[in-house]
Amino acid sequence: MNAFEIHGGKPLKGEITPQGAKNEALQIISAVLLTAEPMTISNIPDIKDVNKLIELLGALGVSINRIDADTYVFEAKDINIDYFQSAEFKEKGGSLRGSIMIVGPLLARFGKAAIPKPGGDKIGRRRLDTHFLGFEKLGAKFVYDAENHFFNVDATQLKGTYILMDEASVTGTANIVMAAVLAEGVTTIYNAACEPYLQQLCKMLNRMGAKISGIGSNLLTIDGVKSLGGTSHRMLPDMIEIGSFIGLAAMTGSELTIKDVHFEELGIIPTIFSRLGIKFELRGDDIFIPAQDSYEIDTFIDGSILTVSDSPWPGFTPDLLSIVLVVATQAKGNVLIHQKMFESRLFFVDKLIDMGAQIILCDPHRATVIGLNKVNRLRGIEMTSPDIRAGVSLLIAALSASGKSVIHNIEQIERGYQHIEARLKALGADIRRVDVQPKGH
Ligand SMILES: CC(=O)N[C@H]1[C@@H](OP(=O)(O)OP(=O)(O)OC[C@H]2O[C@@H](n3ccc(=O)[nH]c3=O)[C@H](O)[C@@H]2O)O[C@H](CO)[C@@H](O)[C@@H]1O
Ligand SMILES: C=C(OP(=O)(O)O)C(=O)O
């Protein structure tokens, strides 16, 4: 079993370039199924989740040509719809959450699709109702095969309609948009999610010939077209990686430059890190973070304790709350972290407490962090990463802690962070991959 062994407590220094956005890549790569023409997609991150989706498309019959390290040409000319019935599909399709987004394009183009209950992080209940309610509204028949945990949808012709989404689901919106672009007539989606991932998807679909308006808002209008053509698309830098690197710099007192961040697409993310007291400047399109001995958490105007909570875009992404939490453990001041979306994403704080952090887990959704102002450093320990963002938070904690830490279950981290060990080493981190079993196994 692979684990990271880290000797922490040393400041890092240098430049780091964020990978292409994971959650955008999963949408964009699914969308190649909407056309028989070639699609050239670049800045694709080389991470487990994305590679698994690409493999899945290959198994469905999409021709895949990797033309350089991060650029692929996809051509979905001959799709093998019968692959849905195979045992291999049951295994591959269910192993990542992003695979759910092949359903919308397949339904739109071939009139049917199926998907095993998808994987992804165990961070609480993650229902998919929004996706299937949307498909049903467009006229598809939905059957859930409870015995095999299989979702099936089919439709002879999808028809445009008004959809009030029951929640602003990110992957749900992407799926319904991809189904609606080839539906007959006009579809209006209200309470749509509008993360940059979705804005990028919609812009790409329009370049393919779709007619989507309202991009960037929670009201999308889609005028269905008969067919879509090929195009090229480049992924934005991963905003969650960028936030993770800002947190890493602050926690480890490092001077870091995060390159080519597309600052204008980061929404409220930089503001939240500023409110934690972290200093940085924008140099061109790079974020420069000077080495900081201390950073002080802001309070609300009335002097009360700051709360950082997640909400759908343009609110603060839930995927960065674990990072904010870990960074706060070494800040001066206190903060309440309120994770509204997922009920099991804060449970990793027991590991931070073992490392010496002062945190009160108030309930599954809220944790109060009492910052140590770097007076008491965290201590290295052995731990297991429960999910992707907790994993990176623990990695940041370990890099800042004195002594040795071992992090198990690093597959979780690697499903979303490209070549993380080599990139951290290049900044001077003492991290290596070891093959050890967690204690008690
Ligand atoms: C592959 C991918 O893109 N994954 C992202 C996507 O997952 P995903 O698309 O699966 O997440 P959803 O947007 O569907 O929402 C996730 C959870 O949040 C709850 N919810 C959602 C919307 C809302 O307004 N209120 C609310 O409570 C839902 O009930 C659900 O349980 O979006 C999540 C929310 O940004 C991110 O954490 C995931 O990294
Ligand atoms: C929860 C996440 O991913 P997924 O939706 O793929 O589980 C994430 O990227 O933080």
Automatic annotation (TrEMBL):
Tagged with keyword Kinase: no
Binding site for UDP-N-acetyl-alpha-D-glucosamine: R97, D319, M341
Entry GO terms, CC: cytoplasm
Keyword Magnesium part of the UniProt annotation: no
Enzyme class label: transferase
Main location: cytoplasm
EC numbers for this chain: 2.5.1.7
Active site location: D121 (proton donor)
Purpose: Cell wall formation. Adds enolpyruvyl to UDP-N-acetylglucosamine.
PANTHER family assigned: UDP-N-ACETYLGLUCOSAMINE 1-CARBOXYVINYLTRANSFERASE
Protein name: UDP-N-acetylglucosamine 1-carboxyvinyltransferase
Organism: Rhinopithecimicrobium faecis
Lineage, highest ranks first: Bacteria, Pseudomonadati, Bacteroidota, Sphingobacteriia, Sphingobacteriales
